[in-house]
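Q: How would the structure tokens look for this protein?
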Amino acid sequence: MDVSFVVAMARNRVIGRDGALPWRLPRDLRHFRALTWGKPIIMGRKTHESLGRALPGRLNIVLSRGSFPHTAEIQVAHSVEQALEQARLAGAEEAMIIGGGQVYEAFHALATRIHLTLVEGDFPGDTYFPFDPLAAPDWRAVHDERWEADASNPFDASYLVLERGSGPAGSADA
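A: Here is the predicted structure in token form.
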């Protein structure tokens, strides 16, 4: 099973502030929904609490060290391995890791793909993506799409897909 990160990040690696996204980009939220629909999403407790509910159309798996209520819409896992096993048992070919920072860190060694919305600018925040995927030598961009600001989306952004590999995009892996 593939493990993919889905993350919206500012240039300074900020992904959250006070339990919420530091920007409003409806285009990215629609893209997130389409990208994750029908797939298991794995998140930390704080990310789940920031959403306020289980996201429909997806198996919601909350990774938590403490007690957390199981519901019909939410499965609880107490380890990375348990979360992935729950996704496998659901027949998933890809598990989507949606945050927060500690969860990205926990799955970092297993991730094979990053769906990155890179929001132009530096934003104040208290939650950071654990590494800069654009500067990491083991990640290469295989897709890059520019999103211009408009009346509904006040910030320029880029949507990139990065895959774990060696060398720049288009080069042969050794």
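The helical segments are 26-36, 45-51, 80-89, 101-107.

Residues 11 and 121 are 6 Å apart (CA to CA).

Upvote if useful.
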